[in-house]
Hints:
By secondary structure, the chain is α/β, with parallel strands linked by helices. The chain is 39% helix and 11% strand.
Amino acid sequence: xxxxxxxxxxxxxxxxxxxxxxxxxxxxxxxxxxxxxxxxxxxxxxxxxxxxxxxxxxxxxxxxxxxxxxxxxxxxxxxxxxxxxxxxxxxxxxxxxxxxxxxxxxxxxxxxxxxxxxxxxxxxxxxxxxxxxxxxxxxxxxxxxxxxxxxxxxxxxxxxxxxxxxxxxxxxxxxxxxxxxxxxxxxxxxxxxxxxxxxxxxxxxxxxxxxxxxxxxxxxxxxxxxxxxxxxxxxxxxxxxxxxxxxxxxxxxxxxxxxxxxxxxxxxxxxxxxxxxxxxxxxxxxxxxxxxxxxxxxxxxxxxxxxxxxxxxxxxxxxxxxxxxxxxxx
Length: 330
């Protein structure tokens, strides 16, 4: 029997190696692009320069956030359960690592723009932050209780910690808010942007948030720096608590700081895609803001804010009717 050699289909054949002369243009391209790139560093900045003190590391801040989540929720961010017998030793090791890493990053942040600035405030910031961890855990316990009480789909508290994105978002925000209160530069915003990338929930570290806070679903929520949110507030996905147009100086530059974002009272529910803007806007206690509402003024306590002028039309797609022939309208 003759041996027949079969060739693989063309789309499965191993591509041939490029010839040596095929890469000559790589060096030419490098020589063309490099001078302009180096010149842009001199002109536009954006360089973490070794000639001055190093900047905080995004990579290191991410590791710090992961380590802090392990401390706040032992066993929930681990491959294995944490035994009671090893809890103290493991927590001590993790906290010691966080103290060292946070000290390094705070020291760098304090020196941004002034590499010779004394860093004596670093140790007080880190010590005060670590002492606040039990209080932050208690706030998170109440947040999880609010989620369990407010979501009929939540069957277990463990399910909420393991799978609800708002838990990570509010945990990191409460940690970052503590550092923000202690005047640690830059790092609080890096922390909340780290968790923003993971969850799609954007809460500024400056926002003051009360007890029993729950974000259902979560994607697309934005809460601005100067927001003040009361107790027992529930927010759905797509909600924005933002600023109106910004005040500018005589040269047209935005004036930094000032109260720009709304305040929300106690026992308020804000449904999906509602937008509430302005530093003078206040949502009174026990109010409900309906879905897709756009609001730029205050409402008193016990308010229900909904759109009533919109009309929805529903008809049977299987019937070929005149445009005016509808089954019903809402």
